[in-house]
Amino acid sequence: MSTTDEAVLLSAGETRVFKRQRTKNGQTLDYQRWYVEFRDHRGTLQRIPGFPDRKRTEEFSGRLEQWIRIRTLNQIPPPALTAWIEQLPAQMLNRLSKLGIVDNGTTRNDSAEAFLMSADELADKLRVTERHVRSMDSCGQLPEPVRLGRAVRWRRDEIFNWIAAGCPSRDRWNAIKGRQR
Predict the structure, then answer these.
(1) I want to staple 128 with a disulfide (CB 3.0 to 4.6 A). Which of 27, 54, 99, 132 is the partner?
(2) Closest Cα to residue 41, out of 17, 64, 8?
(3) Are 87 and 44 contained in the same domain?
(4) Burial code of 130-152, b = ≥16 C-beta within 10 A, e = fewer?
(5) pLDDT in tens, 152-181
(6) Coil, helix or strand for 8?
(7) What backbone torsions phi and psi does residue 91 show, to the nearest 5 degrees?
(8) Is residue 40 in some structural domain?
(9) Can you spell out the DSSP letters for 139-170?
(10) What is the pTM of this model?
(11) Which domain holds residue 84?
(12) Contact by Cβ (8 Å): 180, 76
């Protein structure tokens, strides 16, 4: 059994929807699912299974294209696009996470832990000590935290976007966020 796929040159952010075929005993058979081929934000050619329905796969492809372009430009994705990513089937979301297209912080859990991270979690993400995180916060080097009584937390999505933007100072980060609204 062999598989045949047409190789197409794509630039970063462009996508292609196609149905894979395989040859078995001289017969050409189509796979059940449609596939999406694209170049990710690093320029690497990727291929992932979409949906059995072509129209749904094309919609997925278009939104994925938007997501990759935003990621390539180090911009913050609009809330509607982030919400769409979070609504993807778990298997697809995990595949995009493994490819580095979406961050591991993208989650469907509605608990506070899903949206907020502690200084300890942030330290792990940044690979620094918790004390250094506290110091960075007091010096204005981190995004503005959320204060819940005496507890200090950071918005998980904001931290991932802040890292993608190159970890600018709080003032610079607020200016970046202000331009994108």
Answers:
(1) 132
(2) 64
(3) yes
(4) eeebeebbeeeebbebeeeeeeb
(5) 999 988 898 898 889 999 999 999 888 765
(6) coil
(7) -65, -40
(8) yes
(9) TT-SPPPEEETTEEEEEHHHHHHHHHTT---H
(10) 0.51
(11) 2-98
(12) yes
Whether 150 and 90 map to the same domain: the answer is no
Answer yes or no: do 7 and 93 share one domain. yes
Cα separation, 50 vs 61, whole angstroms: 8
Contact 14, 65 (CB under 8 A): yes
* pLDDT, tens digit, 9 for 90 and up, residues 98-116: 888 887 654 444 445 568 8
User: Is the same domain home to 52 and 132?
Assistant: no
Verify that 128 and 60 share a domain, yes or no: no
Q: Where would I find the beta strands (DSSP E) of 70-148?
A: 116-117, 146-148
Nearest to 34 by CA among 58, 66, 15, 13: 58
- Distance separating alpha carbons of residues 178 and 96, to the nearest angstrom: 28
Same domain for 35 and 90: yes
Q: Note whether 80 and 161 are same-domain residues.
A: no
What is the distance between the alpha carbons of residues 163 and 22, in angstroms, rounded to a whole number? 42
State the amino acid at position 48 in one-letter form: I
User: Are 56 and 15 members of one domain?
Assistant: yes
Cα angle 124, 128, 132; round to 5: 120
